[in-house]
């Protein structure tokens, strides 16, 4: 992967948070992830809640599932500013999601035998969708917060562990303070394992946008 200058989008993602070179190297070695890491459309950005914060914030992602046997590697990528249409398109572009997360899923995430617990997948989807919405230029300019109002998940087939998965996310519609998003969890073969739709509500300071 070639070095890229920091963008306005990356600045929104707290540039003081360093992206793990080990995670970049790990996913760059995988055929289904490498094209995104080499694409000029995307740049690695911090998966913010994987970093420890003050108080009790972020503990689930930064500690509970940040171990060698849960999620040893995780890498998120955002669409570069200027590579997306100014308006939210009528149809999502399956080949170019707005925000992508690659995640290594370890055996301690299992509910059933060799199967990742559905609650863990729901948490990953919720977090990835939130970062997708917050990474858009409208939100970064307004410095607003987004709150989950609803999350609908369809489990199509079990997600095995250990394995590596990809989460694709899209902003599909915006109505005032309401943000509508969709996501998929895919395995390394490109099979869709889980789908999600969510509604986020932005804080009232953004109501005039």
UniProtKB/TrEMBL annotation:
Entry superkingdom: Eukaryota
Matching CDD domains: PaaI_thioesterase
InterPro entries named among the record's database cross-references: HotDog_dom_sf, PTE-AB_protein, Thioestr_dom
Family annotation (SUPFAM superfamilies): Thioesterase/thiol ester dehydrase-isomerase (SSF54637)
Residues making up the signal peptide according to the UniProt record: none
Stated name of the protein: HotDog domain-containing protein
């Amino acid at each position: 992967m070639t070095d890229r200058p920091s963008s306005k989008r990356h600045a929104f993602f707290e540039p003081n948070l360093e992206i793990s070179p080990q995670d970049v190297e790990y996913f760059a070695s995988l055929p289904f992830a490498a094209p995104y890491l080499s694409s000029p459309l995307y740049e690695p950005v911090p998966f913010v809640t994987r970093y420890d914060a003050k108080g009790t914030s972020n503990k689930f992602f930064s500690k509970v599932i940040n171990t060698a046997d849960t999620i040893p590697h995780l890498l998120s990528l955002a669409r570069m500013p200027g590579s997306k249409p100014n308006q939210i398109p009528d149809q999502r572009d399956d080949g170019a999601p707005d925000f992508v997360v690659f995640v290594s899923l370890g055996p301690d995430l299992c509910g059933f035998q060799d199967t990742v617990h559905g609650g863990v997948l729901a948490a990953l989807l919720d977090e990835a969708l939130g970062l997708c919405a917050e990474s858009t230029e409208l939100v970064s300019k307004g410095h607003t917060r987004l709150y989950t109002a609803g999350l609908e998940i369809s489990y199509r087939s079990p997600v095995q562990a250990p394995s590596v998965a990809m989460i694709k996310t899209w902003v599909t519609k915006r109505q005032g303070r309401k943000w509508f998003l969709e996501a998929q969890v895919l395995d390394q073969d490109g099979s869709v394992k889980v789908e999600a739709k969510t509604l986020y509500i932005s804080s009232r300071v953004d109501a005039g946008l």
